[in-house]
Design a protein that fits this description.
4 helices; mainly alpha; about 100 residues; about 70% helix
Length: about 100
């Protein structure tokens, strides 16, 4: 995921400026060097949030991405073990057995 060049504080401030109605959205985009598409993405994603909320959301998104990577790695390892079992003609262990029952 591409890192934003804007901090949480800047995003919230830009959205608050837009909500105040002092400048048009086009003026805000020009002043801050933001595309209209980026502005709408921010508005949809961060509308009504405070700086701490945005920071917390980004941290949760990072954690979620890390957990997805770990799960994908685990699934690859399981697939490799299953392929090894099949190659050697061994029976696959029953996943429901061996757990605390």
């Amino acid at each position: 995921m591409k890192r934003s060049k804007f901090t949480e504080e800047q995003i919230v401030r830009i959205l608050q400026e837009a909500a105040s109605g002092q400048k048009t959205q086009a003026q805000l985009c020009r002043d801050h060097g933001v595309s209209a598409n980026t502005f709408y993405v921010w508005k949809r994603k961060y509308a009504g949030m405070q700086t701490d909320d945005v920071r917390h959301l980004r941290e949760l998104e990072r954690e979620n991405a890390q957990l997805k990577r770990l799960l994908a790695e685990r699934d690859l390892e399981i697939d490799a073990v299953r392929a090894l079992f099949r190659k050697n003609g061994l029976a696959l262990p029953n996943p429901s057995r061996g757990r605390d029952s």
